[in-house]
Amino acid sequence: MARAGKPAQSATIIDVAARAGVSAMTVSRVINGRSGVSAETRAAVEKAVADLAYVPNVAARSLVTSAELRIGVVYSNPSAAFMSEFLTGVFEEASIRGARLVLLKGEGGRPPAPAELAKFASTGLSGIILAPPLGESPAVVQALLRAGVPMAAIGAYRVRGAACVRIDDRRAAYEMTRHLLDLGHRRLGFVLGNPDQAASAERLAGFREAVQETAGVEVQVAQGDFSYASGLAAGEQLLDASMPPTAIFASNDDMAAAIVSVAHRRQLDVPRQLTVVGFDDTTAAVTLWPPLTTVHQPVRRLAAEALALVASEARAAGGKARPRRDRILDYSVVQRDSTGVPPSDQPSAAGSST
Q1: Cα separation values, 137 from 60, 97, 240, Å
Q2: Strand 127-130 to 69-75 pairing
Q3: Binning pLDDT at 50, 70 and 90, where does residue 319 land?
Q4: Of the four listed, 106, 201, 283, 347, which is most buried by Cβ atoms within 10 Å?
Q5: Which one-letter DSSP state was computed for residue 34?
């Protein structure tokens, strides 16, 4: 159950690594004929290269011997699972391209102060990557724009001076909601993400679009902020309703995992008594019980694409930023064990509320 977010594109080293079940560094060693790789692993990588028709980026491989790239990464995100995937993608791509990473973290869930950002940007960076939600913070973007270096924002929409690397959040949420409706659910809960992120609004819009196509659906919406703690509060709110939802769609996996925890505490069986789905497909989706049905957002590839984009632009433009179009990657709906048909002992919703 998948939907392409953009036309087919050339395979990347991350794709080869995923197909072969190894790290990107191992793929790089095989491609470059280096030792330290078993015959079995080398054969698996070579087969993945052939299957995906992967063509190594000679220009990227040669960067190790040329002038050093210094890529700044700015982040402040409440989801540890998302950030783990994001940073893995950034580090793998940086190692392939011979780039040095310089990290700046906002403390306490807040973005770094404008003065701190300005100082960071003035240290001779070749490019800057903004992890969500910082790409949509006007104060952050304005402070970094003065540096005049290539910039990419992950998961963002329409950011001045930066390329946005994302998926089609609206369509992905629409497809997940259709999945719930096709299972027969007519009382749906939806947990919003950070209200300052466009992706949150896009996911809600996709949810509502699917709901409006089906008669007799009752909707309850709770506000979250993509954190586990906000998912706990939203789960309590939704399940305290006089007619609680039979299915809850949380805007990320951390909040969905929190809702499953609330359900367990209330001795509700998931999915027999309550269906729960998420968004992102991070490690949180497969480390809880039951494993979570979720939208697979290729976080590692989003991060790697952003780094590749700013690195290539820095090389081509001598470090001067140029306008670029958004990069929209593919997504898929991954069905696991947290979804089922609605309970037969609970009546259908009598009305519709969207």
Answers
A1: 31, 28, 34
A2: parallel
A3: very low
A4: 106
A5: -
Q: How far apart are CA 313 and CA 23, in angstroms?
A: 25
- What does each C-alpha distance from 294 to 96, 244, 282, 350 come to in angstroms? 30, 21, 9, 28
Predicted TM-score (pTM) of the model is: 0.77
CB burial of residue 247 (10 Å; 0-12, 13-18, 19+): buried
Q: Which amino acid type is present at position 41? A: T
Reading the block at residue 30, the tokens are 């095989």
- Taking residue 201's Cβ as centre, other Cβ atoms within 10 Å add up to 16
The one-letter amino acid code at 65 reads T
Write the DSSP string, 193-229: --TT-HHHHHHHHHHHHHHHTSTT-EEEEEE--SSHH
**What's the confidence (pLDDT) of residue 231?**
97
> How far is the CA of 334 from the CAs of 41, 248, 298, in angstroms?
28, 16, 12
Using CA atoms, how far apart are residues 181 and 277, in angstroms rounded to an integer?
A: 13
Question: Cβ(167)–Cβ(331) under 8 Å?
Answer: yes
Give mean pLDDT, residues 228-244.
97
Q: What is the pLDDT of residue 351?
A: 39
Question: Could you tell me the strand order of the sheet in which 69-75 lies?
Answer: 99-105, 69-75, 127-130, 151-154, 163-166, 327-328
